[in-house]
């Protein structure tokens, strides 16, 4: 039998992997996390196991200096809502959602929904959420009766528009500050991956925030998470992962190394918002000019006024899959 050749090594003495020995090199095994769920929750665990996350975003408050929006954020103590997210533990978040107790165990108890993660009770209530974000207890947004007033508030002064007959506002048509506020709202307040069109229900919240109404954010976020836990079918995104991760950590739930420690989401910044919308308008004008040169009717051009403008692609909520 021919003598076996000595494996080639690098300068540091490590064996070099090639086609002849690739199958012999031990590969590190990724750590696994087993959900600690009851039999009743196994079906829910299947639903949540493949969900990705809409991650909370940090707002560059310095870029908002000397703006109305900056004054509103500081006056209403929303700065914690705008701060940099903590480490996120997606598997812990999934277990929290799977084990979410949908039954009120004690009407008079402050934390009526007793949810456990790895056998540890995680306090969760509107008051707990409000305390985490450091926001005062506010009130529900009043109904809007005059949508013309909303239109004057959301559109740029140099491009005023009436309230659209379709009741749908384009994200890219709003003022710079409103587009940044909407991007922030879409990741940190009322999570969604759909920014292009804004319907009246979301516009009500956006307008009330823009005018400085002090929401009861604790109650608002609590209701969104409870609704998601109650009706997960047809949905596919984990939300408020930063909040849930921190609440579990404070309850001394055992944490593995975060899958998202090194994930950096783009910061919401007013300067970048202005730059991105400038690019959108420049590209739209280039398409219109190209259509004219080809002898096409501008109204039939894909860049016409009524087409959804996919602006702020840099500011879409980050969807992380692990």
TrEMBL record:
Coiled coil: none annotated. InterPro entries: Transposase_32_dom (IPR046796). It comes from the Eukaryota. It comes from Abeliophyllum distichum. It holds the Pfam family Transposase_32. Residues 1-21, 292-322 are annotated as: Disordered. This is Envelope-like. Residues 9-21 have a biased composition (Basic and acidic residues). Residues 76-253 form the Putative plant transposon protein domain.
